[in-house]
Design brief:
This protein is an all-alpha fold and 189 residues long. The chain contains 8 helices and no strands. Helices cover 68% and strands 0% of the residues.
């Protein structure tokens, strides 16, 4: 799709044209789902987050800056919607704050050992806290300070949660490899 077609659809969404909204949703559903699946525990939760995200998109489409890439703007909304979903959920179930001062090693290369879909399956098995911090730091590139502000936790808690998330992912990866000697559900890239 060229940028003029996209701008036409966005313009229609600004005018609350249902056909334009439906078309934007259809075009960007997969893109949005990939983002939200990283934060969700399961697909149904991701669908709920995506739908909430598109409600925000349609509500705030007038604020979209045409000089900015639409994918980037949409990605930001989906990430923030995922974080808000996490916050609401953590209010209901008391979030444990892990305040230990672990020094983190250099970024690990766990992502290079497995393909994206298999990584997402493992990440979805992490607790909500670990999954959110892991996604924000490793996949989305936020700093611990930014994560601490987003999630209303300390920088130390962010670092500790990341350390523990990585450790848990390594354990899960090793368990899968140990269960199936000679074969793995993961495709080494």
């Amino acid at each position: 799709m060229d940028s003029s077609q996209l701008q036409h659809i966005i313009s229609g969404c600004s005018s609350r044209d249902r056909k334009s909204q439906k078309e934007l949703y259809r075009l960007y559903y997969g893109f949005s789902m990939k983002i939200c699946l990283r934060y969700a525990e399961h697909k149904e939760e991701a669908v709920e987050i995506v739908n909430d995200g598109f409600m925000r998109v349609f509500t705030h489409i007038g604020k979209y800056d045409k000089s900015r890439a639409f994918n980037s703007w949409l990605s930001t909304i989906m990430i923030n919607t995922s974080i808000d979903y996490y916050r609401k959920r953590s209010r209901r179930t008391k979030m444990e704050e892990l305040n230990s001062s672990h020094e983190l090693e250099e970024r690990e290369h766990i992502l290079s050992r497995i393909n994206y879909d298999d990584l997402i399956k493992l990440v979805q098995k992490l607790s909500t806290t670990y999954r959110t911090v892991f996604n924000l730091f490793v996949i989305d590139g936020y700093t611990h300070e930014e994560i601490a502000n987003m999630l209303s936790i300390s920088v130390g808690a962010s670092k500790s949660n990341l350390f523990k998330a990585r450790h848990k992912l390594k354990e899960m990866l090793n368990a899968v490899e140990d269960d199936q000697p000679g074969t793995s559900m993961f495709k080494v890239s």
